[in-house]
């Protein structure tokens, strides 16, 4: 019965890990340019401190998701994981 309860949790955590990794890659690799009044503006994530912050936070969230995937369900750290999930 415990295995049946852990499979949906594993699948949800795997989906969250995939979402954070893909968001990190998209934000770090994206760039765009716009032309306004014959002036070309290049936009990259390194141009804004807030984008740098979001790339770093997404990378940390990806690491957290990877760690929680391989944490045993009988571990006493699951209470800490529950608190960190709520944050």
TrEMBL record:
For this entry, the protein name equals CASP-like protein
Q: Does the keyword Transmembrane apply?
A: yes
* Domain of life per record: Eukaryota
Q: Cellular component terms, GO, for this chain's entry?
A: plasma membrane
Which of UniProt's keywords are assigned here? Cell membrane, Membrane, Transmembrane, Transmembrane helix
Task: Give the transmembrane ranges.
Answer: 52-71
Annotated Casparian strip membrane protein domain residues: 7-73
Q: Name one Pfam family in it.
A: CASP_dom
Query: Which family does the UniProt entry place this protein in?
Result: Belongs to the Casparian strip membrane proteins (CASP) family.
Membrane-protein topology: Multi-pass membrane protein
């Amino acid at each position: 019965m415990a295995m049946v309860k852990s499979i949906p949790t594993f699948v949800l955590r795997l989906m969250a890990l995939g979402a954070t990794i893909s968001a990190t890659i998209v934000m770090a690799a994206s760039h765009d340019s716009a032309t306004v009044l014959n002036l070309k503006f290049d936009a990259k994530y390194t141009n804004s401190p807030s984008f740098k912050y979001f790339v770093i936070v997404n990378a940390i969230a990806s690491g957290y998701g990877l760690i929680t995937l391989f944490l045993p369900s009988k571990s006493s750290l699951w209470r800490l994981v529950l608190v960190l999930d709520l944050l």
